[in-house]
Specification:
The complex is a heterodimer of chains A (about 600) and B (about 80). Chain A has about 600 residues and is an alpha/beta fold. In chain A, the strands form three sheets. An eight-stranded mixed beta sheet of chain A has the order 16-17-15-14-13-12-11-18, sandwiched between helices. In chain A, strands 2-1-3-4-5 form a five-stranded parallel beta sheet, with helices on both faces. In chain A, strands 8-7-6-9-10 form a five-stranded parallel beta sheet, with helices on both faces. In chain A, a hairpin with a 2-residue loop joins β12 (about 475-485) and β13. In chain A, α6 runs parallel beside α8 (about 165-180). Helices cover about 45% and strands about 20% of the residues of chain A. By secondary structure, chain B is an all-alpha fold. Chain B has helices spanning about 5-15, 40-55, 60-65, 70-80. The longest helix of chain B has 15 residues, at about 5-15. Chain B starts with a helix and ends with a helix. The chains are: A alpha/beta (about 600), B mainly alpha (about 80).
Chain lengths: ~600, ~80
């Protein structure tokens, strides 16, 4: 929804929040349901209301629990029946500098006294996190601390051991360290957000004294958006691709008119510098696993000329696709998405031309569009939007661009074979298929939460749930890794089966679309059957739950794997069954690394 | 400033905040006349009125206003349209 895309109008959202909520709920989109417990050290009602809007807008339908006013600590440590029975999927702890208890009330000269207070304060929080985690094993999001508006020590507040800033900065470092070392624990960085908005606007004494809001109610949408970015990222709702215009977006000027010498990029002029900064910024996203593509109205030859400018930070090889032609840009994005086996909605399109922005946002409403007058504006919007909020970086993220590059080479090779299985054999594929191993759990969880198309049930699991399944005897849970002569695709397929006597119910079967049509699914079935047979299982039960995005696997069980039909319900969910007592392996093109399978 | 004009603008604010196009207010309207006007919505309503008329209510005023008429008194005194 446009009204909720950054930069948004806080006041408009607050005033029209009921109408916005109604519109979001009436838009017929499918959303995952999540139970969010909000444990507050100050009032949270309006935060919850706005958070709901931003989550709905990101494909998540939340249900909330709110602790009684300032009862966050008690709820977390001593428990609360209502919270227990609510059984949250995610917990948010809303504390602020108003909740700090150890600020000194008299000047102390002994640094060790202050440090002890800071450690006590930290341990108080740690007790709470550990207690919540042991009870609910779910993701926890914790605010860090913003700076207070008032400081009686002036500038010395930062360096003097009695200073608020001193105390808060130290405490924030401890919070950050804890987040680095604990999976499933995330910091909502209100220290940055408050600085960005400005402490003068962030704090509002009236809101605190009258309503016990620890931040000005005017900026609650900003706060809720920041928080919702973390939640939607945890549930795999990030964007995946940046599609970039070229002229006046990656450099100043028009390459077709000005030529390679004429465009502004590099350090020669202020304008050139601003585009260089933007290119560096975009390249950082690429390094975290975001794909870059070009979407420009240009002759391809000229596009390459521009990107090969000696001062251009981004080179042609940094892009997984270059569309420089005269097609409409929405068509180009749809085609690129198709080539990369991604959905058009996973794109963020950046263009200085408002008309191009308009056509893309009207034709692909779920794609994000960043328009701008000055390139620094695009940078700020990209930074604050949260489209690529990082909650985990897996090995795969770091290698993703390489993998797509290898895919392009495979496509070239494919064109030289008449027979498809000859092509598959020529790829010299090796797969490692095994029950879950700790080193891959992060990637497995990430894949589970973002795969939409080749996903039979679209069930989502948190890292904690995956850890539990991995340790349990009641499940057969396997992953598959695929490499070939062009490169390693990493973990690309996951199956979770629940053992029910001599049957296995397949709760989850998914595969990354980048390895479609490689017979990896057959190799996965072969291995699943082998693990199942070891557990004396005689048949597999498959289920397909339709969503708007997984039509591609509607007939996966019968057509590809040869399962028999069992039943179909009104909502289109179908059940399938395969007898495996006389199973014969189906994969003939992928070499399975047996040594890795034995665990 | 014209009280009728203020009522007209206030009505728009009330209709947006409570998402109810049928709301009609007058000088004597109080929170008990509008079902959804509870202490939580009150905070949001006050914020929206402040934005609409570019003013900030004092703490005493927020807790002291008895009806819409008293709100209009304050807007007349310090608000801008």
């Amino acid at each position: 929804m446009k009204e909720l895309a950054f930069p948004f109008d806080n006041r408009y959202i607050l005033r029209n929040r009921k109408k916005i909520r109604k519109e979001l709920l009436a838009d017929n989109s499918t959303r995952i349901k999540k139970k969010v417990a909000v444990l507050g050290g100050s009032t949270t009602n309006d935060i919850v209301f706005c958070l709901e809007l931003f989550l709905l807008n990101n494909g998540i339908e939340p249900e909330f629990y709110q602790s009684d006013y300032n009862m966050f600590w008690e709820d977390a440590v001593f428990g609360n029946e209502e919270l227990d029975s609510f059984s949250p999927d995610i917990i948010f702890i809303h504390t602020t500098c108003r909740n700090i208890s150890g600020f000194s009330d008299s000047l102390i000269n002994d640094e060790s006294v202050i440090n002890e207070r800071i450690n006590d304060e930290f341990n108080k929080f740690k007790t709470m996190w550990t207690s919540l985690y042991s009870k609910f094993s779910c993701p926890i999001i914790q605010n860090n601390f913003e700076l207070p508006l008032y400081r009686y020590l002036g500038n010395a507040d930062f360096s003097n051991i009695n200073g608020y800033s001193y105390y808060i900065n130290k405490l924030n470092m401890l919070f950050g360290e804890y987040a680095r070392n604990n999976n499933g624990f995330y910091i909502n960085d209100i220290n940055y957000l408050a600085s960005c908005i400005g402490l003068e606007k962030w704090h509002n004494a009236q809101a605190w004294c009258m309503y016990k809001y620890a931040l000005s109610t005017d900026i609650i949408p900003e706060f809720a958006n920041n928080l919702s970015n973390i939640i939607k990222s945890i549930y795999g709702k990030n964007k995946k691709v940046i599609a970039l215009d070229l002229d006046n977006t990656l450099w100043g000027g028009v390459i077709g008119d000005d030529g390679q010498e004429g465009i502004e990029i590099g350090k020669e002029s202020a304008v050139a510098q601003s585009f260089t900064e933007f290119q560096c910024f975009v390249k950082n996203f690429k390094n975290t696993g975001i794909l870059l593509t070009v979407c420009s109205k240009n002759e391809e030859e000229n596009a390459l000329l521009g990107l090969n400018h000696p001062e251009s930070v981004l080179k042609p090889d940094d892009f997984v696709s270059i569309k420089a032609n005269w097609n409409s840009k929405d068509i180009n994005i749809i085609n690129t998405a198709d080539e990369l086996s991604l959905l058009p909605e996973s794109f963020v399109f950046i263009d200085d031309n408002p008309a191009e922005c308009e056509i893309v946002s009207s034709q692909i409403p779920d794609a994000a569009v960043i328009g701008f007058e000055d390139i620094t504006e695009a940078m700020y919007k990209l930074s604050r939007s949260g489209y690529f909020e990082v909650t985990s970086i897996s090995e795969d993220d770091l290698k993703r661009n390489e993998m797509y590059f290898a895919n392009a080479q495979r496509n070239k090779q494919k064109a030289s074979f008449e027979n498809y299985s000859d092509y598959l054999l020529s790829l010299e594929m090796n797969a490692e298929i095994s029950t879950f191993r700790p080193v891959y759990l992060k990637r497995i969880t990430q894949l589970i939460n973002k795969s939409n198309q080749f996903n039979l049930t679209t069930r989502r699991y948190t890292i904690e749930e995956i850890e539990a399944i991995s340790d349990s005897d009641e499940y057969i849970a396997i992953y598959g890794k695929l490499e070939d002569k062009f490169g390693d695709n990493g973990v690309v397929s996951v199956i979770i089966g629940k053992i029910n006597g001599c049957e296995l119910n397949i709760d989850l079967w998914l595969m990354s679309c980048r390895v479609l049509k490689r017979d990896m699914e057959l190799a996965m079935l072969d291995s699943l059957v082998k693990y199942a047979a070891d557990k004396k299982i005689t048949s597999l039960n498959g289920i397909y739950i339709p969503t708007q995005k997984n039509k591609m696997v509607m007939n996966f069980y019968p057509d590809v794997l040869g399962f028999e039909f069992v039943s179909e319900s009104d909502d289109g969910t179908t059940q399938w069954r395969l007898d495996i007592e006389n199973y014969i392996n189906k994969n003939t093109v992928i070499n399975i690394k047996e040594s890795e399978c034995v665990l | 400033m014209d009280r009728n004009m203020i009522i007209e603008k206030l009505t728009e604010v009330f209709r947006d905040v409570f998402d109810d196009e049928s709301i009609v207010i007058n000088e004597n309207t109080t929170s008990s006349d509008i079902e959804e006007w509870d202490s939580i919505e009150h905070i949001n309503l006050i914020g929206a009125v402040e934005d609409e008329f570019s003013l900030t209510f004092k703490m005493k005023e927020v807790s002291g206003m008895k009806n819409v008429g008293e709100m209009i008194d304050i807007i007349c005194e310090r608000g801008k349209i």
